[in-house]
Amino acid sequence: MSDGSSFYITTPIFYVNDVPHIGHAYTEVAADVLARWHRQAGDPTWFLTGTDEHGQKILRTATANGVTPKEWADRLVETAWQPLLATIDISNDDFIRTTDERHEVNVQLFLQRLFDAGYIYTGEYEGFYCVGCEEYKQPSDLVDGTGLYEGQQVCAIHSKPVELLQERNYFFRMSDFTQPLLDLYEANPNFVQPESVRNEIVSFVRQGLTDLSISRQTFDWGVKVPWDDTHVVYVWFDALLNYITAAGYGYDDEKFERLWPATHIVGKDIARFHAVIWPAMLMAAGLEVPTQVFGHGWLLVGGEKMSKSKLTGIAPNQITDTFGSDAFRYYFMSAINFGQDGSFSWEDLSARYQAELANGFGNLASRVIALVNRYFDGEIPNPGVSEGADERVRTVERRVVAEADEAISRLAIHEALSTIWQLVDELNGYITAQEPWALAKKPEMLDRLQTVLFTAIRGLGTLAVLLSPIIPEAATKLWTTLGGVGDITDVPLRTAYHWETDGKVWPLEPLFPRVETIDGSDGTAAAAASAAPNGPKGPKAPAGGGAKRGPESIDAATKAPAVHPVGTDAS
Ligand SMILES: [Zn+2]
């Protein structure tokens, strides 16, 4: 049983059939910001991510590429998924692959326990199966095909025909858990969030759950059913178990007790697996259900949900090559209300980069530090008597720290950021109103000048600490420049305003330099759009120097096929 203070957070494990697009990176960054925040606040924190490597789709892709499925998975993990984490500065504590022995062995252990407890039986199943979703579909999940698939019923998500499968399978008695799940949602309204996702889940379960087919006999790329090795475990059943097999289930009881349960960050399209099937599985095994399942919204590009098959996928390094990983992290966390759908556009990214990061925050830091260097030779001055304006800055610092922390506890990352930006605005307004450059011209105002610059430097340090989970690179750079004592990630976040300096500042390079393009213009929307590569990209052809490319229209940059299909069924 957890003591309530530990924070175990997960992303979905990503299917190695795909290459990363900004939707995957968005989920990773959100989980990373939450993990970094809690870690720096002193909560025992564990952040898990990884890859989902079994199933028919991967077997087919590997076969079509002339390699074994394990070789295929190894290649994608090495060339696409692990590099993604570096590209966007992810601080995960563990990376699980469903082909890890610790996983496979304990999936079998879990299944055997369910079998022994009477929750698994043999039955016949016939239904429409979407290989893209790795899921049987109800007739109501299908829509009329168009174009090539005119006249056929297709998966609403993949727009491709489904297969009629008939199998003799093992079934999980999920129907037994209809009422226990409804009781769970009732007793713990936070179990599924946000509210829109919770409502959808509750009304789905209210219709009554059917038993779940949990094995496949028609292919063999998966975990073998322990009592019948002619079957492999259904890929979702296998994948969901990663959250406990990575946490020590079955082989490290101490670790499992310490970590479990987890907060799961998922896209809302897979909330049903996490908020219905997964807790039912855990209840059947007598284990604690997750702390929370949070289904975030979709990223829309040109008004459409981004996906590789719809050719709207954008590779994260297309953005980071031009704007840097901090800007990527900041943009997606601030521009989109976490939990709701949000639109990505190069114009919006570029505009926010310039207005909020470069001008709002970066210039504030540069100005204040330059003034201390100019008037005090880099020595942070001692303050004189405080006035109302100085007190006000200190009050805002304290309020912002508390409010941002409270927002993070609700996973409201966008709210935390807009709260922190109140301090950016407060400090900018303070500098403008106090006019330290004017004070410096009057020797009798030396005391006042010292107080103003001292107060501004204090505020900047608090900002650096607060922003370190979100824009770790820039925060660390600023911290070093401020003479911050120790590693910034060791400064307790909930008292960020108590940071210490060795008393001397250093010159600061611009934290968010202007985005240069070949035509010499700066970080405007058009310049950013022209910097966006628009050619097909894949893990074997990483995005080349985006900023060196010629101008293209914003329209082309947002709508061009940015991710090259690597799998046979991806096009
Ligand atoms: Zn599908």
Q: What does it look like?
A:
This protein has helices spanning 22-40, 56-64, 69-87, 101-116, 178-187, 195-206, 235-240, 242-245, 253-259, 271-284, 316-323, 325-335, 346-376, 388-409, 413-434, 436-439, 446-467, 472-481, 525-531, 554-559; strands at residues 7-10, 14-15, 45-52, 94-97, 120-130, 135-137, 142-144, 153-155, 163-172, 192-193, 212-213, 215-216, 224-225, 228-233, 263-267, 292-296, 299-301, 304-305, 342-344. With 571 residues, it is an alpha/beta fold. It has 20 helices and 19 strands. α14 runs antiparallel to α15 (413-434) and α15 runs antiparallel to α17 (446-467). α1 (22-40) links the parallel β2 (14-15) and β3. Bound molecules: zinc ion. Zinc ion binds next to loops.
SSE inventory with pairings:
Blueprint: E1 7-10, E2 14-15, H1 22-40, E3 45-52, H2 56-64, H3 69-87, E4 94-97, H4 101-116, E5 120-130, E6 135-137, E7 142-144, E8 153-155, E9 163-172, H5 178-187, E10 192-193, H6 195-206, E11 212-213, E12 215-216, E13 224-225, E14 228-233, H7 235-240, H8 242-245, H9 253-259, E15 263-267, H10 271-284, E16 292-296, E17 299-301, E18 304-305, H11 316-323, H12 325-335, E19 342-344, H13 346-376, H14 388-409, H15 413-434, H16 436-439, H17 446-467, H18 472-481, H19 525-531, H20 554-559
Parallel strand pairs: 1-3, 1-15, 2-3, 3-4, 10-16, 15-16, 17-19
Antiparallel strand pairs: 5-6, 5-9, 7-8, 9-11, 12-14, 13-14, 17-18
The protein binds zinc ion.
Low-pLDDT ranges = 517-571
Mean pLDDT: 89
In this structure, how is the largest beta sheet organized? 7 strands, parallel
- Provide the list of bound ligands, each named once: zinc ion
What portion of residues belong to β-strands? 5-15%
Our Rg estimate from Cα atoms comes to 26 Å
Continuous helix count: 20
Q: What oligomerization state is this entry in?
A: single chain
Number of strands: 19
Measured as a percent range, the helix fraction is: 40-55%
Give the terminus-to-terminus CA distance: 46 Å
Characterize the overall form: elongated
Class by SSE composition: alpha/beta
